[in-house]
Amino acid sequence: MKDLADYPLSQRPLRVLVTSYRSHPHVGGQGIYVHELTRALKAAGCEVSVASGPPYPELDAGIELIKLPSLDLFAVDNAMLALRWRHLGSRADRAEWLAHNTGAFGEMTAFALRLEDFIAREGHRFDIIHDNQTLAMPMARIAQTLPVITTLHHPIAIDRDFAVAGAHTRLGKALSWRWHSFVNEQAKAARALTHFIAVSDAARRSYAERTGMDTGGVRVAYNGIDHASFTPDPSVKRETGLIVASASADVPIKGLDVLIAALARLKDSHPAARLTVIGQLREGPTKRMLGRTGLSDRVNFVSGLTREEIADLHRRATVFVSASRFEGFGFPPAEAMACGAPVIVSDGGALPEVAGDAGLVTPVGDDEALAAAIARVLDDESLRAAMSRAGLNRVRTLFRWDLHAGLSIGLYRDVLGLADAGVIAA
Q1: Membrane-spanning regions, if any (predicted)?
Q2: pLDDT-based confidence at 420, cuts 50/70/90?
Q3: What is the chain's mean pLDDT, rounded?
């Protein structure tokens, strides 16, 4: 019996290696992206493997996981003492240890070096690599051996600029610059690589502006969402005045300060208005702002929620608000729309693409305009119903993993010269 590799490329399933420098299945979006992309690629007939550093993703049956262990220096008590004699022979281990212990984030480059060694040994097993925004220079060398498609979410240079601006001392700014030193290598890698999937047009444009890369090889494919978890439930009653938002961190880019300022404007005119934030309240600017505005008893923070609990919160919300200053896509408003919640977003990055004509869009940082939009939605039941219907139609039409995988496969086929050839099912 022939092995798959014995068939001509045009007559067998594509062998796709999805790569991700870390893929935590529950924290952040990396593991979720890897899980959903690989599931959809497999359903479309591809043979799929995943190479990842820790934390490792959760994958469907039939998808191979190739573990490329890192030093995982965030999980050790003393990173300075974590290097062992056996590590000295590994350029990846040396690079990761040195970067971490000099205040930089070196996991992406170290992962790419490990992947480069793996491809040198076993690259013949795959037709193409689909990388989840590692963007390190070894990826450009790998692309000389095996075609590399890179997913672009959003440039970390934007996060770096907000982090530096938010630091209150010279030392804090210097440390933030050092931590984000990988941003310069990502820009070089983006210019050296050729083929990309961007999760929004805003991601495509912002990468071009921040890195100087050529956008000719970039195709836009919106992320999908989990439509099995995020769906309406007519039996759940929406709670009057409940505003829901999501903030994974207490940083300026998330725009939580703008939303709280908007709520402060509504405090007297809309006494039933209250805010639930999916996230944790820690000591920091948000907690101080709640004290200054007298809103501590009207703002609630919830964390550690399951998908089902998040969906239930969206079903109870009168309106979902995302006031972020930039998002490369925006899963929370898309998931809220899928549960029938009206959404209000800022014009930061891809948020207007997510909301489309189903939501209301306000200028970034404009708490007065945001307050007016929230009041309009809270006061108008017919508007809420129309926004709910339009939002459901939008997410069900556009934000699907099968579409994302299909557009990715189309790019694979073009890169491999298979645009007009048929591929047999697995």
Answers
A1: none
A2: low
A3: 92
